[in-house]
Design goal:
By secondary structure, this protein is of the alpha/beta class. It contains 15 helices and 14 strands. The protein is elongated, with a radius of gyration of 25 Å.
């Protein structure tokens, strides 16, 4: 009975994750899954299209390879400095110590080391949450995404890592309950979906070929769906119900419908919707087959009753959008997935700019990876001197000679030397894109017309 009540309480908190309000400043804090990932950019795009009246700021604060201890060290300079009103925290993939889980991972020494890693994670996460409290930032706790230890993949399998992440997830759930923080459960949903997929195809995965990093169009969109679901976002973009026979508006939700006319077999009206559809690009098609995003979060309904029987062509601003029978129109059609509408095309323009902004933020996170990871942030050298930084990084790079990751660090250190002189410019580009996005995302009024096909 106690377990049932606990699960009910956890579900209650998961449903009480606050939506972002106008003026919110949000930091998405994490490791490489946040650093180079897309779940937060999908969430941001949803807010740009669904809540265009709200201007929110979003910062990617993930760094590849980070554990909770690393976030503690960079907290003041990298996170507190942007004064977040809300911070989401997803850590654990590196804290769990993947190398501790091998074929012999069931011996007593391995188990002790695995427990020590978990204890460090718990201790550091507690300290981290105290820091968020101290700066007045509301926290949304996110259970870690899964490590796929069950898929039939060629990648080496550190079997048991996902069980360790499950223990991290249990801790996060208990902390959310204790602190009354918002909770988003990536671990639970992704694990359930993986089980379903692998019943059909043992090599299928919601993660990626490396077992660690979710793919942008699949795993990350599923994560974004779960985040938005936890926030209880609205199902409707808009809903317009019109009675053709009497030329009256029977219902309009999140929109304003005016000037309804039905003459000479043509129904026409003006509509100003207060939101835009979420653009469903081909890249997320696989994810959309696994989660009911369209049904639960992306409904732009047009319903027209009492039309004479027949097939009708819909035009918006004199552009043909599609055709449906009178019966289908009476039941309601979802225009959110119709790529021909001007609303959808406007959403695509927003998506393109948002992706550009996200890519720029990711560049800055790659710079942060070197700045904090190399020890540069704690050194006493002149950080504005390219020569001094280059010499510092060259010394650090020598420490990696002969190791498998040498090329990775060499590439990132070289990129940092180019980025360090562009950081200010990139920041200005991000700011300009923010302004442009919050201008472009305002819905416009449109003229609809339905005429019988001959």
């Amino acid at each position: 009975m106690g377990l049932v009540l606990l699960l009910l309480n956890l579900r209650l908190f998961a449903e009480q994750v606050p939506r972002f309000e106008d003026g919110e400043r949000i930091c998405f804090v994490g490791d490489s899954i946040t650093h180079g990932g897309a779940y937060h950019s999908y969430v941001y795009l949803y807010y740009l299209t669904r809540f265009p009246e709200r201007e929110i700021r979003v910062w990617n604060r993930g760094i590849s390879g980070n554990q909770a201890s690393h976030v503690l060290r960079r907290f003041d300079e990298d996170i507190a400095s942007v004064k977040p009103s809300v911070s989401t925290v997803m850590l654990g993939m590196n804290d769990v110590g993947r190398s501790l889980y091998e074929a012999e991972g069931n011996d007593e020494e391995s188990k002790r080391n695995q427990q020590l890693a978990l204890d460090r994670y718990i201790k550091n996460m507690r300290m981290l949450l105290v820091k968020f409290d101290a700066i007045g930032s509301e926290t949304i706790l996110i259970t870690p995404s899964i490590y796929d230890q069950t898929a039939d993949l060629p990648t080496h399998n550190h079997y048991g890592v996902n069980d360790g992440l499950g223990r991290c997830a249990d801790f996060i759930r208990s902390m959310a309950l204790k602190r009354e923080d918002g909770l988003v459960d990536f671990y639970g949903l992704m694990g359930d979906l993986n089980v379903e997929l692998q019943q059909e195809d043992p090599s299928a995965t919601v993660v990626g070929p490396d077992r660690v990093h979710p793919q942008a169009g699949l795993g990350h969109f599923i994560m974004a769906y779960q985040f938005l679901k936890a926030q209880g976002v609205p199902r409707l973009v808009s809903k317009m119900v019109i009675d053709a026979e009497s030329a009256v508006v029977a219902q309009n939700e999140n929109c304003r419908v005016t000037d309804v006319e039905f003459a000479c077999g043509v129904l026409s009206f003006s509509a100003h919707e207060f939101a835009l559809p979420f653009p469903q690009s081909d890249s997320i098609k696989e994810a959309l087959a696994l989660v009911p995003f369209e049904q639960e979060m992306n409904q732009q309904i047009l319903s027209v009753r009492n039309l004479p029987a027949g097939e009708y062509l819909l035009c918006i601003d004199d552009v043909e959008v599609g055709s449906w029978s009178a019966f289908r129109l009476a039941a309601g059609v979802n225009l959110a997935v119709n790529r021909n509408t001007p609303q959808y095309r406007q959403a695509l323009r927003i998506q393109k700019l948002s992706e550009k902004q996200s890519a720029l933020q990711s560049q800055l996170r790659s710079a942060a990876f070197v700045f904090y990871g190399s020890g540069l942030s704690e050194s006493d050298i002149n950080r504005d001197s390219r020569e001094a930084v280059q010499a510092f990084l060259a010394r650090k790079l020598k420490l990696h000679e002969g190791q498998s990751h040498y090329g990775y660090f060499k590439k990132n250190y070289e990129a940092y030397l180019e980025l360090m002189v562009k950081e200010k410019q990139i920041g200005e580009e991000i700011e300009a894109l923010h302004i442009e996005l919050n201008t472009l995302n305002k819905p416009e009024p449109h003229r609809f017309s339905l005429r019988a096909r001959q």
